[in-house]
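Figure 3 (text version): C-alpha cells given as input.
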C-alpha cells in the first residue's frame, strides 16, 4: 500500500484574515508539519471547534520555517470553511501532513508558474522555493482571476517573481480573458522558459498542458479531487493516467506530469 506516513499536530491559529469578500488567509503555528512541508504538498485539517468531523484538504500556500508557521488560503464556499473563517487567534486546528508529492525542481531554465482562482495558493511557496533555493532565473508568474478585487495575491509573491502578470475575466485589471491567452506573449518574451507549473481549474490546466506539450515545454499540473482519507487508503481519489496506470491523487500526487494527465 502506498500510504503516506501520518503526522498529526495540533496547531494554533496565529491569524485568520479576510483577503476579499470570500477568500481568507489562515496562519497556523505547527512547526513539525512546517519542517517537512515541500511546495505543492497539502495538509488535511480539522477544525477542533467545528461541526464537521471529516478532515479537509488544503494546499500548502506558504511556510515560515524559522517560526514554524503555515499559511493556508481558502475560499469560504461551504459550512466547513464558513466556520473556519469565524475562528480567532489561539483556536486549535488539527493538522495532518504534509501529504502527497509536490512539484519537482530543476536548475536549468526559467519556470513559468500559473495559478487560477484559489488554486493560486500553492504557487506562493513554489515561487519562494524557486527564488530562494534553486539556482537560475527567477520565475515568471501568471495569475488568472475574476476581477481587480483579487489582486491581493501580489503581496505574497512579488518579491519572488521576475515578472507578475494578471488576466481577469472581466478586464478590470491586466489582460482581459483567461490565463492561457497570455502565454504565447510570455513565451516570446522569455524564451528561456523550460518548465511550466500550473494549479487551478481542470479546464485551465488541460489547455495549458496541451499548449506546453505542443511547445515541448515540461509541464506539471496540480490536481484537485475530493479526498476522504488523504493517505492512499480509501481509493476515493483515483484516476486513469494516459499510460493506463491508475493513480491516487492524494498519495501519488497531487502534482503530476501534464503528459500523464492530459497528453
Ligand atoms: Fe483516500 Fe486518496 S483520498 S486514497
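Below: residues designed for each position.
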Amino acid at each position: 500500500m502506498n500510504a503516506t506516513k501520518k503526522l498529526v499536530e495540533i496547531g494554533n491559529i496565529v491569524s485568520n484574515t479576510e483577503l476579499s469578500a470570500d477568500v481568507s488567509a489562515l496562519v497556523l503555528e505547527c512547526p513539525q508539519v512546517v519542517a517537512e512541508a515541500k511546495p505543492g504538498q497539502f495538509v488535511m485539517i480539522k477544525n477542533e471547534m467545528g461541526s464537521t468531523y471529516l478532515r479537509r484538504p488544503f494546499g500548502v500556500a506558504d511556510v515560515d520555517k524559522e517560526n514554524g508557521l503555515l499559511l493556508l488560503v481558502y475560499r469560504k464556499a461551504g459550512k466547513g470553511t464558513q466556520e473556519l473563517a469565524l475562528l480567532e487567534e489561539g483556536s486549535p486546528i488539527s493538522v495532518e501532513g504534509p501529504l502527497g508529492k509536490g512539484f519537482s525542481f530543476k536548475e536549468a531554465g526559467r519556470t513559468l508558474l500559473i495559478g487560477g482562482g484559489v488554486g493560486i495558493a500553492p504557487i506562493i511557496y513554489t515561487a519562494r522555493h524557486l527564488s530562494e533555493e534553486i539556482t537560475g532565473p527567477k520565475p515568471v508568474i501568471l495569475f488568472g482571476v475574476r476581477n481587480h478585487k483579487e489582486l491581493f495575491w501580489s503581496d505574497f509573491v512579488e518579491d519572488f517573481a521576475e515578472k507578475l502578470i494578471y488576466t481577469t475575466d472581466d478586464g478590470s485589471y491586466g489582460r482581459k480573458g483567461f490565463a492561457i491567452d497570455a502565454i504565447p506573449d510570455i513565451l516570446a518574451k522569455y524564451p528561456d522558459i523550460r518548465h511550466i507549473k500550473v494549479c487551478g481549474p481542470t479546464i485551465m490546466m488541460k489547455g495549458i498542458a496541451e499548449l506546453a506539450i505542443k511547445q515541448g515545454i515540461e509541464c506539471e499540473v496540480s490536481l484537485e479531487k475530493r479526498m476522504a482519507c488523504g493517505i492512499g487508503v480509501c481509493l476515493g481519489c483515483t484516476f486513469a493516467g494516459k499510460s493506463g496506470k491508475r493513480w491516487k491523487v492524494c498519495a501519488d500526487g497531487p502534482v503530476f506530469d501534464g503528459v500523464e494527465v492530459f497528453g
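The helical segments are 31-36, 79-85, 121-133, 154-157, 179-189, 202-215, 249-252, 258-262.
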